Fold:
Amino acid sequence: MSPSLIISIIAVVISAIAIGVSIWTHNRNHKLQTRIVALEEAREKDRLAEKQKANLTAKITKEVLPRSGSIKIDTTYYLQIENKGSSEARDVKIKLDNKSLLEHPAIIDEREIQQIGPQSHIQHLLSLTTKTYPPFDIEITWEDDSGELGKYSTTLTL
Structure:
């Protein structure tokens, strides 16, 4: 065998190996890029879905006001429902200790608010006595633009 033939054969083998590595690298990069695109699409879908959701939470707040002309202080308590989401909560239903909100003896209000805008809150005046004192179990359900039924439940304390 002549040296030029041996060099030609080695060159063909090296070229074949280079083509094989190139094809393998291309396929691997293509699969990786496809996975990255799928992840980005899923993130975008989740981000858009999050923009369509309301996120309701509840807490008991108090307002302390000094009485005029005396040392005594009045404390007023409220049940505050806050929408921390980016969408309006509609058809809001609140149960306090397994009773509808207005049936609970601690609630003074005569009207239940059923819509809460994004990044806003509502308050219901509470009358706390020895018979109507926290802890209260609260469950809130609502509808929003996401199409999913929202639900929040917790135990409220002072």
In short: The chain is about 30% helix and 35% strand. Residues 24 and 115 are 57 Å apart (CA to CA). The mean pLDDT is 91. The helical segments are 3-51.
